[in-house]
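Let's practice the habit of predicting before peeking. Look at the sequence and jot down your guess about where helices and strands might fall. Then scroll down.
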Amino acid sequence: MPEKTLFLVQQFERIGKRLVAGRQMEFKTAGEAEGRAERDSARTVGVVALQQTIDTDTGEVVEDPVVLARYGELPADFGDA
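Done guessing? Here is the structure:
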């Protein structure tokens, strides 16, 4: 089972009273993802940087995502820092 670690940044925007997922971006390193999340925090309602390992054959998530950085308002799924 070949695995790949992804470093993702997920932006969130507010539509009415709901937070909805906006743009998602992938980066080569955790540092790049954390830096982008910090920069995006000034212009989005919320943003989170994640590390996630997937099985490259099936696309299934191998491990629970690790939150690297979080800013602003986020869905309850991301809990409190």
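How did you do? The first strand starts at residue 3 and ends at 15.
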